[in-house]
Amino acid sequence: MRKGIIITTAIASGVVITALIATPSIAAMNRGGDPQGTGPTASSSQPYAQTEHMNRMGDGMGSASEMGAGMGAGNRAGMQGDASKGVGMAAGLADVASGTMTDEQKASLTAMAAEEKVAHDLYVAFAEKYDAAVFSRIARSETMHLDAVRTLLERYSITDPTIGLEVGMFPTDASQKLYDTLLAQGSASLDAARETARTVETTDIADLTAASAGVTAPDVLAVYEHLLTASQHHLSAFGG
């Protein structure tokens, strides 16, 4: 969160989940002190290759609502998706115009890639641990979201800091520690995992709202709006 966030204490199966107080936003932590948003040197390795096919899959609850959720007319029309055909956001960007971005906006976009990876990797871990289909469905959505952000990074010649990083690995010590903490919290019980997921989505909503402020580039605005709508759907899916 841009402001401090309190991860509410949850009691599940007799286990008390310790609150994290005044945690910086995931996006801010993932900047890693790189104001230009250039990140480390890119690698040809694609840690998400094993889930790349998911970009063309419907998300059950998530993608159907996201991809068909009125992205608006005009230069956002190309962003509308057809979940039954598995059309992803990245493909839809082909018809959306680019614009200009400030260094600060580029840094926010870079951080957003790491933020989507945090969400994706957590949900993958929870999907493996718990018999709850919501985690695998929304992990597939996060794969599509990261693809869309990566498309923007490529358009604006910004290096993706998540390239070459395996699932559970992150570009800064702070973001790695945050992921590890959230993973440990959500591993206590299914209820704790859902609470952790609600925290992630609430954080995403706050960060996307802040990142959108002042942005004029049509393609960036379109992606941010889509991700914001998606996070709201995900929050509801996790019981928020």
TrEMBL record:
Pfam families: DUF2202. Keywords: Signal. InterPro entries: DUF2202, Ferritin-like, Ferritin-like_SF. Residues 53-77 are annotated as: Disordered. This is DUF2202 domain-containing protein. Residues 1-27 form the signal peptide. The keyword Signal applies. Residues 108-238 form the DUF2202 domain. The keyword Chloroplast does not apply. Coiled coil: none annotated.
